[in-house]
Amino acid sequence: MKVTGKLLLGFFIGLTTSVFLFFLLLGRTSDARAALLLAPNVLAASGEDIAASRHNAITRAVAKASPAVVSINVTEVQEFYRVNPWANDPFWSHFFPRYDKIQREVKALGSGFLFSPKGYILTNQHVIDSADKIMVTLPGGDQYEAQVVGQDYKTDIAVLKIEGKNFPSIEFGDSDDVIIGEWAIALGNPFGLFDISAEPTVTVGVISAVDQDFGQRDNERVYEDMIQTDAAINSGNSGGPLVNSNGRVIGINSFIYSGSSNIGASIGLGFAIPINRVKSVADDILKHGAVQRNIWQSLQVNDVTPYIAYYLDMPRATCVIVSDVDRNSPWDKAGLEPEDVMLEIDGTTIQSTKDVEKIKKKLRLKKGDALRLKVYRNHRIYSAEVKV
């Protein structure tokens, strides 16, 4: 009996345990089934999050700015002369001219952007320089022949016009508010790729530096206060917009430092004309057809660095040096030359270009006024008078 009782007790305990485990497993299976039923919804929600995450400040800026970016194709008819093959013949040389005039079409390309619904376009002057015909292609492939409203060689800025209305236009930013390290987006037509897809290409980088002064280059263009970026800018990007993460244009892509002078490929050193300067030039072009330069615009100055001070054998580096003087300007007539160092203007000591800017705003010059200068040159200090 004792053995039978133990067997019955063991059987009862085993049965109870089995029933408990059965219901426990049944509950977990229900949870698993519920999880499987919910899985498609969870995956769908996750997919939506992933898709949403692909849209960011960069993509929104591109979507905002790209409809106003255009491709510019330029045709120039060049003439040259070659020696007539009959020129040296004793007999036939009397019947044929010594030289034959040959004409050929030379094509070039660049970029630009619409800044008005009326069809006004901004680009670099070097993009359309000497052009006989200018064709503009909009995103989507529509083509228009453009006319030059005005151009300024020195600042490398030009305004074009295409006929029509309600064109998409880009929004101007503030180049004085650019932050080093913020996103920079370059749009345009590098190597003619815009013409293949009828859409501008996009490269992204950051603002590498601001206020990069190159002064007057060998071609007599003046590039000052340039914005530097590592966003890839290649041949054909010239004239296109450099925009910020808000989709507002902050500069016109103008030139690069390249590892090859033949290819013009980006190595991460691109430079854009600040848009605030562009707006000033464009306003003059739209109002007058050309830039109306005042007395200050015919003079370019830069801060004297310790290296420049050492080179000129100066006792201090707190002043400004003349980098360029327009011919026949009041400064030129007063005798100023590049490499002269300006110490004073109308009795005010000049320590940096900021002091010159303050004087510009302070003085209201009119015709007949004169500015008194103190200038350092060749270890001597001169006085000069600039007449407006």
Q: Please, could you describe this protein's structure?
A:
The chain is α+β, with helices and mostly antiparallel strands and 388 residues long. It has four domains: 2-51; 67-161, Thrombin, subunit H (Beta Barrel); 173-288, Trypsin-like serine proteases (Thrombin, subunit H, Beta Barrel); 295-387, Pdz3 Domain. Helices cover 27% and strands 36% of the residues. The protein has eight helices and 22 strands. The chain has helices at residues 2-53, 57-65, 125-128, 193-197, 275-288, 306-311, 330-333, 353-362; strands at residues 69-83, 99-114, 120-123, 133-137, 143-145, 147-152, 157-161, 171-172, 183-188, 201-212, 215-216, 222-223, 226-229, 241-243, 248-258, 266-274, 299-303, 320-325, 341-345, 348-349, 370-377, 380-387. The strands form four sheets. Strands 5-4-1-2-3-7-6 form a seven-stranded antiparallel sheet. It is globular, with a radius of gyration of 35 Å.
Concise synopsis of the structure shown:
By secondary structure, this protein is an alpha+beta fold. It has 8 helices and 22 strands.
Mean pLDDT: 83
Count of spatially separate domains: 4
As residue ranges, the low-confidence spans are: 19-26, 32-37
CATH C-level category of the largest domain: Mainly Beta
Q: What's the name of the CATH homologous superfamily of the largest domain?
A: Trypsin-like serine proteases
Characterize the largest beta sheet: strand count, sense, and whether it forms a barrel. Answer: 7 strands, antiparallel
Distance between the termini: 132 Å
Q: What is Rg?
A: 35 Å
- According to CATH, the fold-level topology of the largest domain is Thrombin, subunit H
The outline comes out as: globular
Question: What order do the helices and strands follow?
Answer: HHEEEHEEEEEEHEEEEEEEHEHEHEEHEE
Structural class: alpha+beta
Helical fraction: 25-40%
Per DSSP, the total helix count is 8
Q: How many individual β-strands?
A: 22
Largest sheet, order of strands side by side? 5-4-1-2-3-7-6
For the record, the CATH architecture of the largest domain stands as Beta Barrel
In percent terms, what proportion of residues is strand? 35-45%
